[in-house]
Amino acid sequence: MSHEFLNPDSLAAARGFSHAVVAQPGRTVYLAGQVAMDAGGTMRGETFAEQFELALSNLVTALDAAGGRPEDLVSLTMYATDVPAYRTSLLAVGAAYRRVVGRHYPAMALVGVTELVEPQALIEIAGTAVIPDRR
């Protein structure tokens, strides 16, 4: 069985996220915040969308190490230092999201912050996944 994604008609339409997720029984994986850093510790990506794609790819790589897949994600929290850049990059960010995760939309939040620990980072993405007992 897969997780249940709920989007009540009494709330605004969910575009690119789900309002609620009921996770199936399984193993919970807490994924640390990831930025657009390569394996050598170098920040990559000049644009918001480029950094977003690498940060999300890093998160999925960590999930894979725990035996999970993108469809096991139940929640993502994104911390952005430039929310207007996020808004103007929505098409590119959406395309990057679909390349990395597909059309799986867990519960999500984007939080504007003044800075991140990594000074060059425009985005940091943390997540929670539940790997169902199906495996």
Structural description of this entry:
The chain is globular and about 40 Å long. The protein has 135 residues and is of the alpha+beta class. The chain has a single domain (27-132), classed as 60s Ribosomal Protein L30, Chain: A, CATH 3.30.1330.40. The chain has helices at 48-65, 83-88, 90-100; strands at residues 4-6, 20-22, 26-34, 73-80, 107-112, 123-132. The N and C termini lie close together (11 Å). The strands form 2 sheets. It has a 4-stranded mixed beta sheet with strand order 3-6-4-5. The protein is built from 3 helices and 6 strands. Helix 1 runs parallel beside helix 3 (90-100).
Secondary-structure blueprint of this entry?
Layout: E1 4-6, E2 20-22, E3 26-34, H1 48-65, E4 73-80, H2 83-88, H3 90-100, E5 107-112, E6 123-132
Parallel strand pairs: 4-5
Antiparallel strand pairs: 1-2, 3-6, 4-6
Helix pairs in contact: 1-3
Q: What is the name of the CATH architecture?
A: 2-Layer Sandwich
The N- to C-terminal Cα distance equals 11 Å
Counted beta strands: 6
Instruction: Please outline the major beta sheet.
Output: 4 strands, mixed
How does the helix and strand content classify structurally? alpha+beta
* Percent strand: 25-35%
The structural domain count equals: 1
Can you give me a brief rundown of this structure?
This protein is α+β, with helices and mostly antiparallel strands and 135 residues long. It has helices at residues 48-65, 83-88, 90-100; strands spanning 4-6, 20-22, 26-34, 73-80, 107-112, 123-132.
